[in-house]
Each structure stands twice: as C-alpha cells, then as structure tokens.
Amino acid sequence: MEKPLVNRVASSGIITLNLEDYFPVGELKVFDIKAYLFHGLILKEKDFRTALKEHDWEQYSGKNLAIHCSADAIIPIWAYMLVANYAQPYANMIVEGDENTFYATAYHKALAAIVPSDFDDKRIVIKGCSNKPVPVSAYVELTRLLRPFAKSIMYGEPCSTVPIYKKPRPKRN
Question: Are residues 159 and 127 in the same domain?
Fold first, then answer.
C-alpha cells in the first residue's frame, strides 16, 4: 500500500509573507521639475507658477505621484511644495523623490500597519522573488519589525529558504 503524499510545508506552521501584497494601489506618475527649468539650470518663480497653473492636474486622479528633478540643479524647497499643493486634490499619494523613493516610502507606510505581535513565536518566510518593484528597504523594514517577536525569519520560498534569524532557546539550568 502506498503512503499518501503529505505536504510538509503546509503542515509546518510556517507563515509566508509576500511583500507584493503590500504593493501600493494606483499607477505611479513622475513629475520632473527639469522640464520647467530655464536653460536646464534655473527655476524662475513667475514662469514656474504660471506653468503649474496651466498644467493638467486631473491626469493624476487616482494615481500616485513622485516629484523630483532629474537635472543637476538647485531646486528651492518651495517648488516641491507648490507641485504637491496643486497635485494634492487629485493624487493618492505624493512623495518627493524618484520611483525608488516612492516605492520605499509607500512600503514603509504599508508595513507600519502590521501588528508585529501577531507573529509572536511564529516561523516566517519572507517571499523572495517578486514580479513588482519591491525595494530592498521593504525587506529590511519587515525584518526589523518582526525580529523581536518571530521564532524564526527566513527568506525565499517555504521549500527553499535562507535563514535570517532564529530566536535563541531559553537556557536550561
């Protein structure tokens, strides 16, 4: 008689966390201040204000916005504030920085909603491969949050993991 196949991973009590589940909702658009620089170097306040008033802000409805300047120019802080001011009624989330900065900020915000004590004495695998741009900082932040509570933290897939942390066993007297 053949033994039935047993899925040892499923019966192990391991919790798999997929960071893709925390991926921000909404398309990401980038607002590059470089397009508004005079000769690619100088931001003229009057011209910039006029351009922002004429800009189609509705294109950011329901989307996320990263505000940055890809030119090597000194941009005053108020310029970023003006863009945020105009975009705020339309965009979901507004971040100063490039796409990488946006994703790092969005993940940090999403992971802040995790209740780490829910993972008290649990074995956790943080899923490795992803089809979405999950920043390294999200893996670092999740590890930081869960380490004080988890029994163990591993990286990868439940069938093939890299150990990251294992809670020490209490010393016997």
Answer: yes
